[in-house]
Amino acid sequence: MRLLLDESIPKRLRRSLPEHAVRTVVEMGWSGVKNGKLLALAQADFDAFITVGKIVEAVAAGRTPHEVLADLPYLEAEDIDQALAYAARRATA
Question: Which of 18, 21, 25, 61 is deepest in the core (most CB within 10 A)?
Answer without folding.
Answer: 25
